[in-house]
Amino acid sequence: MNILSKRSRFASNPIHEEDDLAERLKRSGRNIIKLSTGDPAVYFPTPKYIIKAYIEALREGRTYYSRAEGTEALVDAVSSRYRRMYRIDLNQKDIIVTQGLSEALYFINSSIIDEGNTAFIFRPYYPAYMSNLYLCGGRCALGDYDEGRGWSIDVQKAAASIKRLKKTSRGKGLKYIIITNPNNPTGTVLQKKALEDIVSLANESGLLLISDEIYDEIIFNNARFTSVSKLAAGIPHMILNGASKNFDATGFRIGFVIIPESDPQSEKIKEKIGEYAKVRLSSNTPAEFACAEAMNNVVEHRRSIRYMVAQISDRVNHAVKLLDENSHIDTVRPNGAFYLFPKVDFGRMRLKDDVDFAKKLLLEESLQVTRGSGFGSPGHIRIVSLAPKKILEYAIDRINQFCIKNSKR
Ligand SMILES: Cc1ncc(COP(=O)(O)O)c(C=O)c1O
Q: Is residue 1 a part of any domain in this protein?
């Protein structure tokens, strides 16, 4: 008998698949540069006012299980944030706090996906969308972010795919569309028009629209971010967000799901996700109190996020400039988050594909990046551009030399 379940094979994460090899190389004395994990807290210390609030929460004895759906202090802080930033009014029950957005994905799929149901996911996608969906017995139908159009969404193509799918028996089990804005791995900030079209598509096809907006304050190059919460009034939708990126607190494990509508479907989902939250009892209580202060202290937050975004923008733009010197690589300039997702011209290289590229880059140049096929887009690599410019300069010089070395003559 196989002790492991069949579904457990989907419990994997391409972002971490080279970690063991990198660790072994490190132990053998190599200095590995890790450009594979999108963890801002490694390079930017979590703001002091947030750390202070965490310590205060501990001192005040806030070490108990908190309300499963989120402590009221944090739920109210999230609600104020959305009123302040997007002018939407939320009730307490519209917000459910989770242990990172990652847990929200698990709760959502567990609540609404039955064996064989389908979700519509655009590629390149954040890998956890896929693993959570598959772990719950779901299947995916793929749309595309269009590289030729700056990784924007090809909504017409998506509409045609959904229409086709709806005519099949599988179409009956189509449950939701998920988008990521700003995007991981491309860093794209979607234009308002594309978002309006996606909202209309979800509405016309009767699908729940989920928008992962975890980088909604990490915007640069004068891009304008629009939250789906501002466009989807009257239509069942969910906004996912958390403390990891905007508040530079990945290790706190705080995320949240927002379900602003009160139609019967939305109410059912809110209630069920709340039940899932109760099954796991509580989020990290002191972190919840710290995150409430993180959001409520607007002056301190503004100061911290402005500094971090200015630094990130400088690093990302510098990295793009250096990569542009590489004739084997083509990069769409990102306007948000902190990832680069260049396309590699494998036709002109002696490397087979992105898997081969990532592995050899680690073995030969001590640089860890992630293969694009892990995000559903082979032929690309993902580079996290959070490190200081000097490190990025060194790393990209290694990538450029590596491409020359592996070029077909
Ligand atoms: C698009 C996206 N969603 C969700 C997450 C996970 O966030 P959390 O740390 O809140 O679980 C990440 C982390 O990189 C991400 O890039």
A: no
